[in-house]
């Protein structure tokens, strides 16, 4: 909200990401210290099936798919696998999963190793010095590569911490997954 609350001043309203403004963008201040119109509201704009979590529209897919199929399913909806790049979003996603589905299932997120760790939008996990990372203690661990062709895709896994945290595993496993609107 910017502008002036003085008489004949006008206020301009905007909404944060994931919200649409409902009502007039600009309203004026009246001589009697009331607004010259209704104060607008912000309404979440996630598409059907998605919910707003930490300013991000997400959907939890309960069908179990391998990493590529899960990513393709998200892409069909104009989304990608979820990218919990911030602690805020990572913790919010964990809480949604645990509160709704418990801590035992595993879920793909949009992080994969292709030379380096890349998010589903192509950005690098190592882009900046103080980037957030939500790995389980001891992960990413490459030991599993002796048995499987690749251990390059990242899942939420309630391992030693009993909390869904990042773990690299074989991309061919069929897991639940989380989509994020892009
Ligand atoms: Ca691992």
UniProtKB/TrEMBL annotation:
<protein>
    <submittedName>
        <fullName>Brevican core protein-like</fullName>
    </submittedName>
</protein>
<keyword id="KW-1015">Disulfide bond</keyword>
<dbReference type="InterPro" id="IPR016187">
    <property type="entry name" value="CTDL_fold"/>
</dbReference>
<keyword id="KW-0732">Signal</keyword>
<feature type="domain" description="C-type lectin">
    <location>
        <begin position="53"/>
        <end position="180"/>
    </location>
</feature>
<dbReference type="Pfam" id="PF00059">
    <property type="entry name" value="Lectin_C"/>
</dbReference>
<feature type="domain" description="Sushi">
    <location>
        <begin position="1"/>
        <end position="44"/>
    </location>
</feature>
<dbReference type="InterPro" id="IPR050801">
    <property type="entry name" value="Ca-Dep_Lectins_ImmuneDev"/>
</dbReference>
<feature type="disulfide bond">
    <location>
        <begin position="15"/>
        <end position="42"/>
    </location>
</feature>
<dbReference type="InterPro" id="IPR001304">
    <property type="entry name" value="C-type_lectin-like"/>
</dbReference>
<dbReference type="InterPro" id="IPR016186">
    <property type="entry name" value="C-type_lectin-like/link_sf"/>
</dbReference>
<keyword id="KW-0768">Sushi</keyword>
<dbReference type="InterPro" id="IPR000436">
    <property type="entry name" value="Sushi_SCR_CCP_dom"/>
</dbReference>
<dbReference type="Pfam" id="PF00084">
    <property type="entry name" value="Sushi"/>
</dbReference>
<dbReference type="InterPro" id="IPR035976">
    <property type="entry name" value="Sushi/SCR/CCP_sf"/>
</dbReference>
<dbReference type="InterPro" id="IPR018378">
    <property type="entry name" value="C-type_lectin_CS"/>
</dbReference>
